[in-house]
Design goal:
The chain is an alpha/beta fold. The chain is built from eight helices and seven strands. Strand 3, helix 5 and strand 4 form a beta-alpha-beta unit. Bound molecules: zinc ion.
Length: about 200
């Protein structure tokens, strides 16, 4: 019989976070219970709140509390440009460059056959629908310059071009193996301006 079932549950839950092993999870749990019970309450409430309120935008797939996110609902954005990124963090990075005023589609991942992540998992049908709405004139592939990001861009490029869409890829201001989240805004801005036909 387990004596500390709730403690075990807490440690197990913390272990689910990326980069957190059993030892760190245990340290975090002890820290919260002993020194920061207020923080623990905050963590619990934030988790419940996020779980009930946050879902995917109907149009671009990013996280939002509304059916359609603020960016998609903004009439000032240029609906003829659709920038495809892997994650909401990448979307924020592109926004920070202040060079892009179009709309987005967030894949929420990348193709990775070795991990069993195929086209369905990156919401390809939703992307094709979005890109084929009659308003989009150019799809900019801004996936990472990693092997998987490049393979994803290639696959998306072929799929979208087969439907008669104009597809461009970010220029290589971004280093090989680079992830957008960790590239400085200036480099990413250059890459956006120098984008090329995919
Ligand atoms: Zn949206």
């Amino acid at each position: 019989m387990k004596i500390h079932a709730s403690l075990d549950d807490l440690i197990e839950a913390l272990r689910r976070l990326p980069g957190v092993g059993p030892k760190s999870a245990q340290r975090m749990a002890y820290h919260l219970l002993q020194h920061d019970r207020e923080g623990l309450t905050q963590l619990g409430l934030a988790c419940t709140g996020a779980l009930t309120k946050i879902h995917h935008c109907e149009l671009c797939n990013t996280f939002t509390e509304q059916p359609v996110c603020e960016t998609c609902a903004n009439p000032e954005r240029d609906a003829s440009l659709l920038c495809v990124v892997e994650t909401p963090a990448d979307l924020l990075m592109v926004e920070q460059t202040l060079t892009f005023h179009g709309l987005y589609f967030v894949l929420m991942g990348r193709l990775s056959p070795l991990d069993g992540i195929g086209p369905k998992d990156i919401h390809i049908t939703k992307l094709v629908q979005r890109a084929s709405n009659g308003l989009v004139k150019e799809v900019i592939l801004a996936t990472n310059f990693t092997n998987e990001g490049e393979a994803t861009a290639h696959y998306l490029g072929e799929t979208l071009k087969a439907r008669g869409l104009t597809v461009t890829r970010l220029a290589r201001g971004v280093p090989v193996g680079g992830e957008l989240e960790y590239v400085d805004a200036g480099t990413l801005a250059r890459a956006m301006l120098d984008r090329r036909t995919a």
